[in-house]
Amino acid sequence: MRQVLGRFASGVVVVSGSGPDGPVGFTCQSFFSLSLEPPLVALAPSRSSATWPHLHRSTLFTANVLRDGQADLARSFSRTGVDKFAGVAWVPGPTGTPHLRGALAWVDCRVEQVHAGGDHHLVVGRVLQLAGEDGRPLVFYRGRFASLEG
Ligand SMILES: Cc1cc2nc3c(=O)[nH]c(=O)nc-3n(C[C@H](O)[C@H](O)[C@H](O)COP(=O)(O)O)c2cc1C
């Protein structure tokens, strides 16, 4: 699965929200635009994710679309059980969820549905607000971070 499906290149988001002790988040590749009317996105957090239960409980999350040059951020948010926000620049967005400084786009969502998806959850989020900037995205391909040529 990993070897073949790693050939499907994607962008990278940090899914962030609020936990009992402050901001929480994790790096996520399985994120996509699901529906325009109503505006929905989908993502797949692992059943072993330490962050997902906090987002589920609070019902709110932000998908921060990472920019070219933010691979270090993607790596640090792929660790578990540590304070991933230490030293990270962020501001609270309109719903209070963390927006990472320098991200290419942010998508604020409310959890609408959670489906079983094997060892992952398939989460449908209702888009509440979103915005983006010019720039190049961080890309993940075959287990490595890459960038788009101009
Ligand atoms: C590029 C990249 C993409 C990832 N995509 C996902 C994903 O789609 N779903 C997921 O559950 N974990 C994904 N991960 C792994 C999580 O970021 C990692 O398991 C992290 O420790 C989870 O943190 P948590 O335990 O605080 O939730 C990805 C990691 C990287 C580096």
Automatic annotation (TrEMBL):
<keyword id="KW-0560">Oxidoreductase</keyword>
<comment type="similarity">
    <text>Belongs to the non-flavoprotein flavin reductase family.</text>
</comment>
<dbReference type="InterPro" id="IPR012349">
    <property type="entry name" value="Split_barrel_FMN-bd"/>
</dbReference>
<dbReference type="InterPro" id="IPR050268">
    <property type="entry name" value="NADH-dep_flavin_reductase"/>
</dbReference>
<dbReference type="InterPro" id="IPR002563">
    <property type="entry name" value="Flavin_Rdtase-like_dom"/>
</dbReference>
<feature type="domain" description="Flavin reductase like">
    <location>
        <begin position="5"/>
        <end position="147"/>
    </location>
</feature>
<dbReference type="Pfam" id="PF01613">
    <property type="entry name" value="Flavin_Reduct"/>
</dbReference>
<protein>
    <submittedName>
        <fullName>Flavin reductase</fullName>
    </submittedName>
</protein>
